[in-house]
Amino acid sequence: MFNDKALLITGGTGSFGQAFVKTVLERFMPRRLIVFSRDEQKQYEMEQTIGQGVVRYVLGDVRDRERLRRVSEGMDVIVHAAALKQVPTAENNPIEAVKTNILGAENVIFAAADNQVSRVIALSTDKAVNPINLYGATKLVSDKLFVAANGGDDKGRHTKFSVVRYGNVFTSRGSVVPYFIRLASEGATELPITDTRMTRFWITLQEGVDFVLGCLERMYGGEILVPRIPSVRMIDVAKAVAPKLGIKVVGIRPGEKLHETLCPRDESHLTLRFANHYVICPSIAMPNARDYRTDASGAQGQPIEDGFAYDSETNERFLTPEEIARSAAASPSRIIHSMPTFG
Question: Mind listing the pLDDT tens digit for each residue in 240-286?
């Protein structure tokens, strides 16, 4: 569906953005692919590895509505990946997080609608579910904005806006796997674990990209799409990275949860289970209302049981340390090339 299409990705020089651009170029023949970000150094580095061709690198900030409006002209698809994502950074700089994650989301919505972009997907996070930190709160507002944006206008034009929500990408820059690898390579004798009970969902960078590409085909607009993925125990992640090192419990950091939730219990009446993902239907009325039980690709979903919550603690599948190591080693991320393997 992306052949001869024009795509824009905000935050395009981040880990997800780079993997997304590479995957699109490998599988499709887009007419144009714009990498939009505020980091000129990362754009330069990305250009050296990916090149130009149909790819155009545009400097700008999602806080700048007019810049976004101009760069969105002629686009068929927008993937909104730009955000301030670090929990401590958001806690210490709350207004900056609001400007980027909330006002930036609003700017993307206006730019897409003004230019009649066909489809827009925004990347969300588990931290938007029952948030206990500012980052999660800003992403919750962002999710609500994108869902509510599906109103069209008085001329009948309608841009489809949907949200993709998943947890931490463990093999991306800044995540715990590269951090553990760095500590091990520097001669650490033990790895820090916040709590031995802590669990997380596990998704690799490529799996995240593939899910977003699939959602661009199956979306109607207004839904939040969540992949069905395994969980990991953080103590098992440490064992997978460096099985010979000890473990040091350092305590839960401010704004951190023991377990992740992607589909909250309070929205079980809105949630549908598909073969490989969940769909949280909008709680507000949508124009041209669809039956989300059959998605745009024809896949069938079923309502989940009342009171169901999709969280990392009670997930039906957990990876073993060996499976974690194999999954991480298979990731295309250049950061984890030194991941140990099990024979």
Answer: 988 889 999 999 888 889 999 999 999 999 999 999 999 999 999 88
Let me know if residue 341 belongs to a domain.
Answer: no
> 60 is written with which tokens?
């700008």
Q: Beta partners for 227?
A: 277
For residue 343, being part of any structural domain is answered with no
Which residues does the annotation mark as catalytic?
127
- Two tokens, residue 238: 């440490």
Q: Is residue 1 one of the residues assigned to a domain?
A: no
153, with CB counted inside 10 A (0-12, 13-18, 19+), is exposed
pLDDT at 175 over 90: no
Tell me, what's the pLDDT at 52? 79
Residues 109, 270: Cα–Cα separation, whole Å? 24
Q: How many structural domains is the chain composed of? A: 1
Q: Domain of 24?
A: 6-336
Would the pTM of this model clear 0.85, i.e. be above it?
yes
Both ends of the chain: CA-CA distance in Å? 40
Cα–Cα distance measured from residue 131 to residue 146, given in angstroms and rounded to the nearest whole number: 18
How far apart are alpha carbons 283 and 276 in whole angstroms? 22
326: domain CATH number?
Answer: 3.40.50.720
Contacts of 151 by beta carbon, 8 Å cutoff, 6+ apart: 287
